[in-house]
């Protein structure tokens, strides 16, 4: 009903006189054709398909045009178009048209509101689990596809804006490399970290690891496509915009330019452009012991990759591990079964699960993330005689687990509940790093209860490596903040 009233409102705009009849007939006939291939062939209509249609030859096209297709086209397209020609469309005054459109749009808005209130959970998970739906919706699927195809053809290669062109790093006077291991979490929310006060022991593996937990950190966005580029950008959450970020360098580019070895190890579905200009390794998606299922391996696959990368570090280095973390809705696939919290929700239709079981499943994924972080810290410890090393863990955004009937994530930041925005952050430093950066772990702990955000990451990474640049803001660098504490000055 929402779609019918929305489409009716939009089509009302063009419906008038002979032009309207011609346009609507065209929409009817093309829609019938598209629907036929969608219903009978499972064809998803996107811009690649448009290119394929344009590129196909007559023989290929003829193979697709069978009698059933023509019959379907006649019944669902030509016949309704014929009726439209027979009846015609009455022309109406602009005021009348506007009134009709407003009524239709209001109907759509009211219906949308009712649906959101009564079944947001079902809608959110359905659209999440069935991303193909938008390629199945006629006629917007082929409007979008044609638009996407035309736009793709005229896209200009954008110039990459330099960030911190004046960035300099003091030459390494120490005899050891300085190494930052940055673990980018996925869909981990602070609310379920026992280190931050959650009553269930989800961070047991990290209890003795000696890290400092930051309990009030907010994310830039509520989805990966926003948060990931934003975390590494100098723009900051307020000025952030995905296309703006794509057109400029990020902190990894700046580091690389100052001579830091940068490498991105990915066990997620890619880095959203952040690692475009730095060496990248995509983790295997199958055949690693028994930790891979359905085209993905559990996050512990990152540990040996980190070990291997660390063993060949020569100079100062930044190694990013991008986790699969708690990526939903199939939380039960994010850890080796059974997990400590039972019973669990073993389906991707999470709105059908009991909330308790859903939270158990999510908590199991956090427990497993804790183990992976702990193992990365173990690897770092084992190398601490050869390098000064720190491990930083920071999640990209949180998650809703049915609170107020909201699931998953991705609500606009202003509307997003705190569960989607509050993210966990943990910092571990080797003894050598604490001395070298002049910041004992206890000092870091003394500032860990303050409010931070993804905005702090860009400046903290620069600060960690001692990079000087006009773009660097020490007031956002957690190492600089820690060092400026009066209590810490006395300690050191
Ligand atoms: Zn994410």
Structure characterization notes:
By secondary structure, this protein is an alpha/beta fold. The protein folds into two domains: 2-154, no CATH class; 178-491, Alkaline Phosphatase, subunit A. It is 47% helix and 12% strand. It has helices spanning 2-14, 17-41, 47-55, 58-64, 67-87, 94-129, 133-136, 140-154, 224-232, 236-239, 242-246, 251-257, 302-311, 355-382, 418-421, 431-436, 441-446, 455-464, 478-483, 486-491, and strands at residues 178-185, 212-218, 261-266, 280-282, 292-293, 296-297, 317-322, 388-395, 400-401, 407-408, 422-429, 451-453. The strands form three sheets. Strands 4-3-7-1-8-11-2-12 form an eight-stranded mixed beta sheet, with helices on both faces. The N and C termini lie far apart (68 Å). Zinc ion binds at residues 186-187, 224, 396-397.
Features:
single chain, 492 residues, alpha/beta, Alkaline Phosphatase, subunit A, 2 domains, 20 helices, 12 strands, elongated, binds zinc ion
What's the total number of strands? 12
Cα(first) to Cα(last) distance is 68 Å
Q: What would you report as the Rg, rounded to the nearest angstrom?
A: 27 Å
Determine the strand fraction and express it as a percent band. Answer: 5-15%
Topology:
Blueprint (H helix, E strand, L loop, with lengths): L1 H13 L2 H25 L5 H9 L2 H7 L2 H21 L6 H36 L3 H4 L3 H15 L23 E8 L26 E7 L5 H9 L3 H4 L2 H5 L4 H7 L3 E6 L13 E3 L9 E2 L2 E2 L4 H10 L5 E6 L32 H28 L5 E8 L4 E2 L5 E2 L9 H4 E8 L1 H6 L4 H6 L4 E3 L1 H10 L13 H6 L2 H6 L1
Parallel strand pairs: 1-7, 1-8, 2-12, 3-4, 3-7
Antiparallel strand pairs: 2-11, 5-6, 8-11, 9-10
Helix pairs in contact: 1-6, 2-5, 3-8, 13-14
Bound molecules: zinc ion.
Zinc ion binds next to loops.
């Amino acid at each position: 009903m929402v779609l019918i009233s929305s489409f009716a409102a939009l089509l009302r705009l063009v419906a008038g006189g002979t032009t309207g009849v011609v346009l609507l007939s065209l929409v009817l006939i093309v829609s019938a054709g598209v629907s036929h291939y969608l219903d009978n062939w499972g064809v998803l209509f996107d811009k690649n398909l448009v290119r394929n249609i344009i590129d196909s030859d007559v023989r290929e096209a003829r193979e697709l045009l069978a009698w059933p297709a023509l019959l379907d086209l006649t019944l669902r397209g030509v016949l309704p178009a014929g009726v439209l020609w027979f009846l015609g469309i009455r022309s109406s005054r602009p005021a009348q048209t506007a009134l009709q459109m407003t009524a239709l749009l209001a109907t759509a808005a009211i219906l949308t509101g009712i649906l959101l209130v009564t079944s947001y959970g079902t809608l959110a998970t359905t659209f999440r689990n069935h991303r193909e739906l938008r390629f199945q919706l006629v006629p917007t699927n082929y409007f979008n596809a044609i638009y996407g195809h035309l736009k793709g053809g005229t896209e200009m290669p954008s110039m990459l804006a330099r960030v911190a062109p004046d960035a300099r790093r003091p030459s390494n006077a120490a005899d050891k490399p300085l190494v930052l291991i940055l673990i980018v979490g996925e869909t981990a929310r602070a609310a379920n970290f026992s280190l931050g006060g959650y009553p269930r022991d989800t961070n047991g593996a990290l209890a003795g690891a000696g890290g400092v937990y930051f309990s009030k950190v907010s994310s830039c966005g509520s989805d990966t496509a926003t948060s990931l580029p934003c975390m590494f950008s100098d723009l900051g959450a307020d000025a952030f915009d995905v296309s703006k970020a794509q057109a400029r360098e990020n902190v990894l580019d700046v580091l690389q330019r100052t001579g830091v070895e940068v490498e991105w190890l990915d066990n997620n579905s890619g880095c959203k452009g952040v690692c475009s200009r730095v060496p990248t390794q995509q983790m295997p998606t199958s055949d690693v012991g028994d930790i891979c299922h359905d085209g993905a391996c559990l996050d512990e696959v990152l540990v040996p990759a980190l070990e291997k990368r660390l063993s060949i570090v020569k100079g100062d280095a930044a190694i990013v591990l991008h986790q699969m973390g708690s990526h939903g809705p199939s939380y039960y696939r994010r850890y080796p079964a059974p997990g400590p919290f039972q019973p669990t929700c073993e389906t991707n239709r999470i709105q059908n699960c009991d909330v308790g079981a859903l939270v158990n499943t999510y908590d199991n994924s956090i427990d497993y993330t804790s183990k992976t972080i702990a193992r990365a810290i173990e690897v770092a410890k084992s190398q601490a005689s050869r390098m000064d090393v720190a491990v930083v863990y920071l999640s990209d955004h949180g998650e809703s687990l049915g609170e107020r009937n909201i699931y998953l994530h991705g609500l606009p930041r202003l509307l997003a509940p705190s569960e989607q925005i509050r993210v966990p952050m943990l910092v571990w430093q080797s003894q050598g790093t604490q001395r070298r950066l002049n910041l004992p772990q206890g000092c870091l702990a003394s500032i860990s209860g303050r409010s931070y955000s993804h905005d702090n990451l860009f400046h903290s990474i620069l600060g960690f490596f001692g990079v000087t640049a006009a773009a660097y803001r020490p007031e956002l660098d957690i190492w600089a903040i820690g060092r400026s504490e009066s209590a810490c000055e006395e300690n050191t």
